[in-house]
Design a protein that fits this description.
Layout (H helix, E strand, L loop, with lengths): L1 H34 L3 H7 L42 H6 L1 E2 L3 E2 L1 H21 L15 H4 L12 H21 L41 H13 L7 H19 L2 E7 L7 E7 L3 H13 L2 E5 L2 H17 L4 H11 L3 H11 L1 E3 L17 E2 L24 E2 L5 H5 L5 E18 L3 E16 L1
Parallel strand pairs: 5-7
Antiparallel strand pairs: 1-2, 3-4, 5-6, 8-10, 9-10
């Protein structure tokens, strides 16, 4: 009787546990559906219309929030509805425990994407791929603004990833001095308590001081890594190249930084020169990345263990000669800055230049280099291609002055189109008192269009 009673109780407990498990699964499914709206709802959020039935299905991790780069400018933009465009780890970046939820950081990141896309169009205006994006009503279903092209390992993709990373980093670093809560002032090694260090000045070298608050690119780089690098956790060559190009964009922001100084003194004299380091104009950052795009390095995946043993261990042996144990401990402490940096370093070591052996000197790409692993034909961008989200070069406007017609037009031929340009503010003059009257001028102009 006791055995039968125990069996009945165990069966009842198993049934109740199964019912509870099913109930929990239903609740989790309901919460997921509520927190992640459908593609049509996402299209309505970013201002799109109906979805195209044959649009490309691309869901690259961590890039969906790029589609909000214009929606955040609208006055009715809701940050909490935009949460569905971020992964859980990305959204946690804006909710640090010691600072709380910071909407200004989200807007700074979106502003950086918007800045990067406009600069991308300007820098690539003379190339066959002009940083073209998907139409607004296709982006929600596609999952990003570039479509399938992000899955290509070509130099154009490397430039797009690097400039977005640079835009996010530069925007957050600039906003650090204005409205971000958790962004501290970047201190220096000379006086970490006050952030001061002496600088030379033409007027008074002894009085020059580094008293300004730097643009904190270290903090901005950490936010950029959490938003861009963390979702891309694969170990194949595509993910490794993507992580390398993200880091190259952040390096471009650091390498183009400049020093800005303001003189203080009585009667216009420069008795004190207050200086700080700030992020350069994004046009300068874009020009730096455009140069790196022209010098992009083709890479391939190699064995990380073999490279680590052949290069890193040999460099350790070469550094050991003629140094004390205390100096070696200090060097080891500098090299070991945490598990994350070691992982990033090994990822970089996992890529070598194409056709090079890991043992050869200079086989590793530099951190500022843009890398690609795939080559395409010269006419890849010529014709419209819906699969790769390419509009083609037909009807593209070019210019003979900068030589873009020969580089953009695939056939090398173009036509000249005449049109009338209307200027409503022409020959303006001041009329007493107090008005400005202008004329409407119509001028004949011409433009070159690729056939």
């Amino acid at each position: 009787i006791l055995l039968e009673t125990k069996k009945k109780r165990s069966v009842q407990m198993n049934r109740s546990n199964l019912q509870m498990l099913l109930l929990v699964l239903l609740l989790v499914r309901f919460a997921a559906d509520a927190s992640h709206p459908s593609a049509a709802q996402s299209a309505a959020l970013i201002g799109g219309g109906s979805l195209h039935p044959t649009s490309v299905d691309v869901h690259l991790k961590g890039t969906r929030w790029w589609s909000l780069h214009e929606a955040y400018l609208r006055p009715d933009f809701d940050l909490f509805k935009a949460r569905s465009h971020f992964t859980r780890q990305q959204w946690a970046t804006f909710s640090a425990r010691r600072c709380g939820f910071d909407p200004a950081a989200i807007r700074a990141a979106l502003q950086g994407v918007n800045l990067a896309l406009h600069e991308c169009e300007r820098q690539m205006s003379t190339e066959r791929w002009n940083c073209s994006r998907l139409p607004q009503n296709y982006r929600a279903e596609a999952g990003n603004i570039f479509g399938q092209l992000l899955k290509k390992g070509i130099p154009e993709t490397a430039f797009a990833l690097a400039i977005v990373s640079a835009g996010v980093t530069a925007s957050i670093a600039s906003e650090c001095r204005r409205s971000l809560r958790c962004c501290p002032c970047r201190v220096t090694q000379d006086d970490p308590e006050r952030g001061l260090s002496p600088l030379r000045s033409a007027a008074s070298p002894a009085a020059a001081r580094y008293a300004g608050c730097d643009h904190n690119v270290r903090f901005a780089g950490a936010i950029s890594r959490k938003l861009l690098d963390r979702p891309e956790s694969g170990r194949d060559v595509r993910h490794l190249a993507m992580l390398h190009n993200f880091n190259a964009g952040r390096r471009a922001v650091v390498r183009t930084m400049g020093v800005k100084c303001v003189c203080h003194g009585t009667s216009g004299s420069c008795t004190h020169n207050i200086c700080w380091r700030e992020v350069a104009s994004f046009q300068k950052i874009g020009e730096f990345l455009k140069y790196q795009y022209k010098e992009a390095v083709k890479v391939e995946q190699a064995s990380p263990v073999k490279i680590y043993l052949d290069q890193d261990l040999q460099s350790r042996k070469s550094r050991r000669g003629g140094r004390s144990s205390q100096q070696l401990r200090q060097q080891r402490h500098k090299r070991r800055r945490g598990q994350r940096q070691r992982r990033r370093r090994r990822r970089r070591l996992n890529l070598v230049k194409a056709g090079r052996s890991p043992q050869q000197p200079g086989s590793l790409p530099r951190r500022r280099d843009l890398v690609y692993y795939e080559s395409v034909s010269e006419d890849f961008f010529c014709e419209p291609n819906q699969v790769w989200s390419l509009p083609g070069v037909h009807q593209r406007v070019c210019s003979i002055n900068n030589g873009s017609c020969s580089s953009i037009c695939c056939s090398g031929t173009y036509r000249i189109e005449h049109y009338k340009h209307v200027d409503n503010k022409c020959n303006c003059r001041f009329v007493w008192c107090c008005d400005v009257k202008c004329e409407t001028c119509i001028t004949d102009k011409q433009r070159k269009i690729c056939d």
